[in-house]
Every structure is written in structure tokens, then in C-alpha cells.
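Dear Dr. K.,

Following up on our conversation at the group meeting, I've run the structure prediction for DUF883 family protein from Leptospira perdikensis. I'm pasting the input sequence below exactly as I used it, so you can double-check it against your construct before we proceed with anything downstream. Let me know if the numbering doesn't match what you have in your notebook.
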Amino acid sequence: MEEVKKDKSLIDEIKLYEKKAKEIEQRAKEKYMEQVSDIKQKLGKASEEASIKAKEVIDTVGTYVKEHPQKAAVIGFGVGLGLGLALGWVFKKK
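The predicted C-alpha cells came back this morning:
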């Protein structure tokens, strides 16, 4: 009879640990989802800010090109030539 009580108490204890494990798992899932949501919000905000900055830069460049077309052409040529030489040098090394 005593052995049956031990078995029953052991089974009850196991069920209690299973319940606790499920509670811990649920809390971990909730915490994970909160963090994922926070990360998504932060990335969305950073993306918006980057988009706004990019538009500002494009507008500034567009204005500069309209006001100084010859200078813009020379600068564009110089940047293109420099990048071409740098890339040629990098790929030639390999």
C-alpha cells in the first residue's frame, strides 16, 4: 500500500513539473515574441529614417546638378574613372 502511495505521489510530482515546464515555455515564447516585435519596430523606424535621408541626398544632388551641370559632369566622370581603376586593380590582383 505504501508503494502505491509513493507511485501516486511520484506521478503527481511529475505532472506538477510538466505543468511548470509548460508555463516556463509559454513565458519564454511570449518574451521571444515581444523581442521580435520590438526588433521589427526598430528596423521599420531605421528604414524610414534611412529612406528620408536618401531622398534628401538625392534632392540635394539633383539641385546641385541643375545649378552646376558642368561641375557635376566632371565630378561624375572622376568618380566613375576612380571606381573603374580601383575595381580593375582589385580584380587584376585575383
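Two things stood out to me. Helices lie at 2-67, 69-93. The two ends are 82 Å apart (CA to CA).

Best regards,
J.T.
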